[in-house]
Amino acid sequence: VVDLGMPTRSVLTTCAYCGVGCSFKAELRGDELVRMVPYKDGGANEGHSCVKGRFAFGYATHPDRQLNPMIRESITDEWRETDWDTAISYVAEKFRAIQARHGTDAIGGITSSRCTNEEVYVVQKMVRAAFGNNNVDTCARVCHSPTGYGLKQTFGTSAGTQDFRSVASSDVIVVIGANPTDGHPVFASRMKRRLREGAKLVVIDPRRIDLVRSPHIEASHHLQLSPGTNVAMVNAMAHVVVTEGLTDSSFVASRCEGFDEWAEFIARPENSPESVESITGVPAEQVREAARLYATGGNGAIYYGLGVTEHSQGSTMVMGMANLAMVTGNIGRDGVGVNPLRGQNNVQGSCDMGSFPHELAGYRHVADDAVREVFEKLWERPILAEPGLRIPNMFDAAVDGSFHGLFVQGEDIAQSDPNTQHVQAALSALELVVVQDLFLNETAKFAHVFLPGTSFLEKDGTFTNAERRINRVRPVMVPKSGKDEWQVACEIAQAMGYPMHYDHPREIMDEIAAVTPTFAGVSFGKLDELGSVQWPCNDKAPEGTPIMHADEFVRGKGKFVLTPFVATRERSTRRYPLVLTTGRILSQYNVGAQTRRTANVAWHPEDVLEIHPHDAEDRGISTGDVVNLSSRVGTTSLRAKVSDRMPVGVVYTTFHHPVTGANVVTTENSDWATNCPEYKVTAVQVAREASR
Ligand code: SF4
Questions:
Q1: How far apart are CA 448 and CA 446, in angstroms?
Q2: Is there a contact between 209 and 225 (Cβ–Cβ < 8 Å)?
Q3: For residue 53, which atom of ligand 1 is closest to its CA?
Q4: Residue 335, Ramachandran bin (φ over 0: left; ψ between -120 and 50: alpha; else beta)
Q5: Residue 80 in 3-state DSSP?
Q6: Alpha helices for 256-305 (secondary structure H)
Q7: What's the CA-to-centroid distance between 638 and ligand 1, angstroms?
Q8: 66: part of which helix (H) or strand (E)?
Q9: Cα 440 to the chain's mean position, in Å?
Q10: Which of 141, 233, 516, 554 minimizes the number of CB atoms within 10 Å of its CB?
């Protein structure tokens, strides 16, 4: 911890790491940031924080920051520093030249969940209005896009149902494919408080996460299923509810539709816990007990993470959980609900802001004439009615030669996206890669233009957390690069011939509010007055909406959707007999670009491979040995840690360090509806390379 003495002033802002969205007072002495103090009145954190938000801010002033724009003709050339005007003109001319040669659709952009709502909004507007296509996607593609799809199909909007406070009223908490202790520590504390008060806990996860057994907490059931079998599990639980007469009939009759067809499907013998036992590996009686507990134990709440979404049936599983909540009446009041624990600080916001290729701000499809008309009138540009390319489609099109230029906002796709070799081939094939970031990251190795971004300490705007809470992000210091990040997209758009200008990010939020019904009541003034609001915030709910779907679902009636289980095509073989699944650790964050440049790296200096003692013994592996991890797409080396947290046949690692590069081995398999990568299931082999 760096403590530079007594502070002389403070600025109230929001943590830029995870989707909990903790409020902090950034305390300064002169212009020097002394410390981050968790804010006691923060709506999301109530004065609590974790080791990332509290201590891992040193990256913002790290000497690795690249503060001037840079250009190079070829990725084999040396970088040449330049001024902003030259860099902006260069980018605009190159994009225009590519479009002249290859067509309007030959370029696109990726927005970042690390950036503010306002910064994301202007990038998607730049793509739609200045590029003239819908080739914009967000990094949520590779994490929570199935949440967006699944919750919209069933409930009518792409967001969690509850506020964090609601967990204090839960009687049964079901945690599926999430590790809140490491991933969302401050919310985990609230959850643990409720569990210590006596709420029951069901954990559905292949890994024995800390929550299963921690001081004064013991899960009633840990359903330690095989990776890739979530849908079979949730169907089996719903089967128990329907066939044992545990349905909340009055809720279903008054609030939902599609029940009869769904009930006929779910009651089929193939969905019973006994039938799927050989698929999930979980004894049927445990599944029956857990289902009965959730259905009859009082307020039942589901919290889930990327262990749900990052599968070939990620969207199906989200809808399966929604079915389970509806059939038991666990929706629309305190203590219940279906709640995604969002990964990045603004993953909810980056989705809300219209940076999916098929949706404009507020999750409205580009094919909707009335919606397009609203934007076209304000933007004075036509918007295409056909969806654009998703991130994986951009990569494929680049390799195929039909996509040639990419703007990447604050996202290290060369490290974070699956099948690194394919991503690198795509980036290498592009004529123009523009990276806007704090550091020369892995993706910048393939870039022709580098534009310096701003850290959260330099940003002025808003983040939206996992409970739809819109928090203010206030600047603690002036942009080190001399330019606000939102200005960059505006200036590229202007240089390409589309007038786009704002004097202040509050004007961007005013525009968002003007075109997005769920944000109609949001303004910087209101946020400064109330501290934060949860969308929808409009005439009907001027102070926001903590609990959604209270009287009716956003889509009117909640919709039961059939969710047949389909096994992933990723199969263990003689050559690749183990299954790899990936996750995160408390002190580090995603690709580690920030946390690796802070003292937090001392807690996790390298990624390690957890392997069960039986699998380790079979291979002569001990803790500390360097092992080779290989799949059908790639191979990497890392140290082993023998651990019985994983079941036999399953190995686990994190992806915080580029040297290890876990995504070298993950495959191109993805969710059928959204193309979210199947990070959680990769058939691998592990072999000892050397002992420590
Ligand atoms: Fe930041 Fe998340 Fe930690 Fe809160 S819980 S301090 S938002 S990383």
A1: 7
A2: no
A3: 6
A4: left
A5: strand
A6: 259-266, 273-280, 284-296
A7: 28
A8: none
A9: 22
A10: 554
The first and second tokens of residue 654, run together, are 């994190």
Give the helix/strand (H/E) hosting 350.
helix 347-352
Q: Which two tokens stand for residue 99?
A: 């479009």
Give the pTM: 0.91
Task: Give the nearest ligand 1 atom to 51 CA.
Answer: 3
Task: Write a three-state SS string for 127-183.
Answer: HHHHHCCCCEEEHHHHCCHHHHHHHHHHCCCCCCCCCHHHHHHCCEEEEECCCHHHH
Separation CA 622–CA 345 (nearest Å): 37
Mean pLDDT per segment of 10 residues, for the chain of length 692 residues? Answer: 69 91 91 90 90 81 91 96 98 98 97 94 98 92 86 93 96 96 92 96 95 91 96 98 98 98 98 97 98 98 94 96 98 96 86 95 96 97 96 95 96 80 93 95 95 95 96 94 96 97 97 97 96 95 95 96 96 93 69 67 75 96 95 92 94 74 83 90 92 56
Residues, the chain, total? 692
Nearest-CA residue for ligand 1 atom 1 is 53
SS3 126: helix
Cβ distance 624 to 643 under 8 Å? no
Distance of CA 536 to the CA centre of its chain: 20
Is the peptide bond preceding residue 479 cis, with omega within 30 degrees of 0? no
Q: Using an 8 Å Cβ cutoff, are 531 and 43 in contact?
A: yes
Strands 449-452 and 461-464: unpaired
Complex-level ipTM: 0.99
Q: How many CB atoms lie within 10 A of CB 616?
A: 23
Q: Is 466 in the pocket of ligand 1 (CB under 6 A)?
A: no
Number of Cβ atoms within 10 Å of the Cβ of 72? 14
For ligand 1, atom 3, the nearest C-alpha belongs to 50
Per-residue tokens: 151: 């919750």
Q: Is any atom of ligand 1 closer than 6 Å to the C-beta of 17?
A: yes
CA 625 to chain centre: 32
What gap in Å lies between CA 154 and CA 177, rounded to an integer? 20
Of 556, 570, 681, 566, the residue nearest 317 (C-alpha)? 566
Residues sharing a CB contact under 8 Å with residue 674, sequence separation 6 or more, in sequence order: 141, 145, 146, 148, 149, 314, 315, 390
